[in-house]
Structures are given as structure tokens and as C-alpha cells.
Amino acid sequence: DQQVKQNSPSLSVQEGRISILNCDYTNSMFDYFLWYKKYPAEGPTFLISISSIKDKNEDGRFTVFLNKSAKHLSLHIVPSQPGDSAVYFCAASAGTYKYIFGTGTRLKVLA
Amino acid sequence: KAGVTQTPRYLIKTRGQQVTLSCSPISGHRSVSWYQQTPGQGLQFLFEYFSETQRNKGNFPGRFSGRQFSNSRSEMNVSTLELGDSALYLCASRGTDNYEQYFGPGTRLTVT
């Protein structure tokens, strides 16, 4: 049972445009969500997080939106840069520090 | 501040053998979690240790075990290796009362 789903395995975006990565979850007990970026041969790097008491969190070019009623979150990257090309994982926690990760979306930013 | 380190980076083992992987967290972090990453499966949570105690456990067989030492360093052991155990094993550390985890580069285990 995949509680956290990233239904798009890959996404291509032109440099300078917006990248939108999506994540759906099924467990209504999840109360904290995180996004990670992973380059080949490296561990995931923490990007941005959001608590369930918020619906938006921004950090520079990265914004995460949370829609609790739809059990959906998204990561917006504006503007997209070639260095953003990586695999992006969303993760969720139900207050136990046990994180459930999605299967990842490979983003390719075209120059 | 030094990041999370994992040793070894690469490992090749034979079916039936056992293996021990090591993880040193960021200084001051007392929580260490372990994950298995395989193609198409994302990151699967193995377990979390905090102050030498296992606090959370994922859905893996008992062949997968771990421990944490008083200096917060952690080891993960896999006994009776199977071909399906071939994966990237990642550890992550976290500060107290902080949700953000910081990952090491991983250990690539290949079982032949």
C-alpha cells in the first residue's frame, strides 16, 4: 500500500519556466511533509517542508503548497534552472519521525 | 559542520553472507534513520534510533537489524543476504525536535 504517491515518474521543463511536482497521500494522519532533491551517487538533500497547519511555505525559488482536503501537495520551482535537474522525492510523517517517501519524479530542465 | 558520513561507499557480497554498514551522524544529532532505495520503490524506511534506542521500525524482515552507540554513530546489519537486498542504503540524521533529516551519500550494496 503506497501511502505517498508521485504519479509522474518524469517531467521536462524549459529553463526559466515553472516546474510543478506533485505528490498525493492517503493517510489523513500525516502532519508534516518534506521535499528532497537527489542527484546521482549522492544522498537526498532537504529542500523545503510544510506542517499540516499551513497551506503554503516559501523558500527562495521553492514553494510548497498543501491541500489537505485533497490530500495533495505540490512543489513549485520558479524559475527553473538546469542545476535543478534531479530526482525529487516527497515524504510524509504522522508525528512519529517515521517518514514515508514517494517513488520520486525525475525533473529535467532544458537549457 | 561535517555532514552525515557512511562507510563503506560500495560493497559486494555473496548470497548467504552478512554485512554491516556504518553511519556517523552530524555532530549533535541524536536521531539516525536507515532507508533502503531500490529502482521503482523509492526510499523504504528501515528503522530509526534515538539515544541508542530503536524508536520506529519499518516493514522489513528480522534479517535487518541495527544499533546505535553512545556517540550516536549507528550500524546496520543484514544477515543471510539475498539477491533482492541489492540496493542503496541511506542513513539520515536529525536534530532533536526537528523534522528535517539530512542524508549521507549511501552505501551501494550488491549481492551476487
Q: What does this 3D model show about the protein?
A:
The complex is a heterodimer of chains A (111) and B (112). Chain A has strands at residues 4-5, 10-14, 19-25, 32-38, 45-51, 56-59, 62-67, 72-77, 86-93, 99-101, 105-110. The termini of chain A are far apart. Chain A is built from no helices and eleven strands. The model of chain A has no long low-confidence stretch (mean pLDDT 94). Chain A is an all-beta fold and 111 residues long. Chain B is mainly beta and 112 residues long. Chain B contains no helices and eleven strands. In chain B, the strands form two sheets. In chain B, strands 2, 4, 5, 6, 9, 10 and 11 form a seven-stranded mixed sheet that branches. The mean pLDDT of chain B is 93. Chain A binds chain B through residues 6, 32, 34, 36, 41-46, 49, 89, 91, 93, 96-104, and chain B through 4, 31, 33, 35, 40-45, 48, 55-56, 58, 90, 92, 94, 99-106.
List the helices and strands and how they pair.
The complex is a heterodimer of chains A (111) and B (112).
Chain A: E1 4-5, E2 10-14, E3 19-25, E4 32-38, E5 45-51, E6 56-59, E7 62-67, E8 72-77, E9 86-93, E10 99-101, E11 105-110
Parallel strand pairs in A: 2-11
Antiparallel strand pairs in A: 1-3, 3-8, 4-5, 4-9, 6-7, 7-8, 9-10, 9-11
Chain B: E1 5-7, E2 10-13, E3 19-24, E4 31-38, E5 42-50, E6 53-57, E7 64-68, E8 74-78, E9 87-94, E10 101-103, E11 107-111
Parallel strand pairs in B: 2-11
Antiparallel strand pairs in B: 1-3, 3-8, 4-5, 4-9, 5-6, 7-8, 9-10, 9-11
